[in-house]
Model the fold of this input.
Amino acid sequence: MSRARLAGVALAAGLAVLPGCQSGAPSLAPEQQQAPSASASASSSDSDGFTNPVYDSNFPDPMILPTGDGDYLSVATNGNGANVQTLVSEDLTSWEQGDDALPVLPEWSSPGKVWAPEVAVQSKSRYVMYYTTRAPRADIQCISVAVAKTAEGPYTDKSSKPLVCEEDKGGSIDAHAFTSTDGKRYLYWKNDGNAVGVDTYISVQELDKSGTTLVGKPKRLFKQTLPWEGSLVEAPFLWENGGKFHMFYSANSFASADYAVGHAVADSPLGPFTKTEEPILVSNDVAVGPGHCALFEKEDTVWMVYHAWEPGAVNEEVPGRTMWLSEVTFAADGTVTVVPPTEQYPKRP
Done:
C-alpha cells in the first residue's frame, strides 16, 4: 500500500488525501495511450462504474479531500461568483455546488485571479489553504495562505502580505503543501516566468509546524527542459511511495492539446529530481489538455483528479475545464501508470 500525505493526518471515510499524479510503468507514448474499455473488468457492470467527467462544468485546478463527516469536498480556481469554488459529494462521482470557501480576500489583494487552491489537513479542526491571488502589484499574482476549522471553510486570511511573491520572476503561483512521513512540511510552487518571458522553475521551501510560515531558504528544483514541456512547467504535486518522492507537474500551454502531466522522482523532497522523458497523461479523443492533477487514496486504490477540455471546445468558457478521475498505480521499480481519460469508467472509487 502506498503512503502519501497532504498534511500528515489520516481522516475518516477511508479517504487519504495525498500528493501526486501519475507516471508510466513504463509510460506510454502519447499516440499509444488508450482508454480501457468498459469490459476491462469481467465483474463490472453499469452500476459498478461511473461516467467522466464527474463534474461537467468549468472547475479548473481541482483537488479532493474528505470533509471529516463521511463526505468529500473539491476545491478549484475562482468561478461561478466564488473566489474558491467548491463541490460536495457523498460518493466521489456525483457532485453538487458548495459555498465559496474563501469569501473574503486579504486587504492587499483583489478578486478575479484566485487560482489553484489546495488544502492541507493538519487536524480534524485545522485546515490550511494555499492559493494564488493578485499581488499588491496587480499585474502579477502571488501565493497566500488561509486557515479554517472545517474543510468547507470559510477560510480566513489575516496576512499583511503574500507568503511567496517573486516579483522579479513574474510572480509565484500553483502552491502545493506536502508533509513527509518524517513530519517535515514543505511548500512547492512555480514562478510565473512564462507570463513575462523568462524561465519557469518548480521551487520548494520548508514550512514551520503551523504551515503558515516559511523557514530557511527556497530551492529551485527544475525548469522546462524537455521538448514536450514547451515554455513552462507548473502545478507541482508530490507523492511519497516506497521511500521515493514522485513529483507530478503539468507543462505547455493550458489551452491546447499539448498540455499534459509530467513526472519526476527523487530520494528526498528536496531533490534532485529525475524527469520521465515523456508525459504520463496526455490528450485523447475524449479529453483535451488534461492536467493540474492531485491524488487521493480510497480503500487502497489511488485516484487522480484533474481537469480537461472537451474536444472541440478548447479555451471556451462553456463547458470549460471539467473534472475527471483516473486510477494511478505505482510499480516496484518506481514507475507509475495512470489510466488515460475514460468516459465510461468500469470501476467506481
